[in-house]
Amino acid sequence: MRNRPRLRPLVAATLCLAALAPGCGARVEKPSARADRPVMLTNCGERVTYDKVPERVVTNDVGITELMFALGLEDRMAGFAMPDDKGDLRRVPWKDGYDEVPWLSKDQLTAETVLEARADLVLAGWNYGFREDAGFTPDALRELGIASYVLTESCRNGRTDTARGIMPPLEALYTDLTNLGKLFGVEERAAALVAGFRRQIADVRAKAPARAPKVFLYDSGEDQPFTSGRYAAPDQIISAAGGVNLLHDVADSWTTTGWETVVERDPDVIVICDYGDVSAERKKDFLLSYAPLRDVSAIRHRRIFVLDYADLVESPRNPSAIARLGTYLRAVDDGRAGGRRS
Fold this sequence. Notes:
Number of strands: 14
Family: Belongs to the bacterial solute-binding protein 8 family.
Protein name: Iron transporter
Number of helices: 13
Distance between the termini: 35 Å
Pfam family, one: Peripla_BP_2
InterPro entries: ABC_Transporter_SBP, ABC_transptr_periplasmic_BD
CATH architecture of the largest domain: 3-Layer(aba) Sandwich
Keywords: Signal
Order of helices and strands: HEEEHEHEHEEHEHHEEHEEHEHHEHH
């Protein structure tokens, strides 16, 4: 996924589950005192041993950072890296975390950044901070004496050197919350988050329309659209909301496709990922005016829905995104959403 998140104001109540965020009045579990006991986790299919509980974690990107915030682990963080088009964070459930934790960089993480922060763990992902071309990898950090944890959504799946994803996206979210809960000694809080998310999503699934609309996720790109295969978060956000991802058959996470594929598969709804230098409104204008799409159902009926970047990458915002998209897809099924072009 691109590294330019753009967050718009959210109504905190839509995300504020009983076990969700420290700022929502939930009791924050105190990390257990086991700093000297090694912890073994499975991360991206490999067994990894952490000799102690990390005390100076550096995170990359908004979704990864909010995994730590949702677990109440701000005091274990040395900082985060995030572009400056982050949007308004004053009403997100984890506002206190953004107030408390240093913003280290408005660019991608580098070895210099994490060394200066005296980090003992980097929490990032492939294409979410880790990258071979710049030599910023878990192996390179290990040589510097810094541990890593790789975001499960980004795990390489072995089909090619770059294909990512090893499990359904929501299971990736639950896996990371569970692993981080174990590593930092907040298992109860992690379990409560996962249970609350499962309940919220099950409630949306129970209301799903009888006929699942085909949904195309449009991230960016005019020559070729950047979109989601079955291993990126949008795939299960769409399916749990009551739709079916147009590119579900692609065994990758974030990837490109051709416009001819979009036209041939004829989506009923298009979801725009709102972030970066091109606004959601400009993306919508492009889609509505792009001649090859003129006969696509979603374009003819103007069925275009917008979600933020932080909703669509692995993050604790995924369940809320499912609920909001589910409401829209039910409106589509009832004929209350969209309308023919004039």
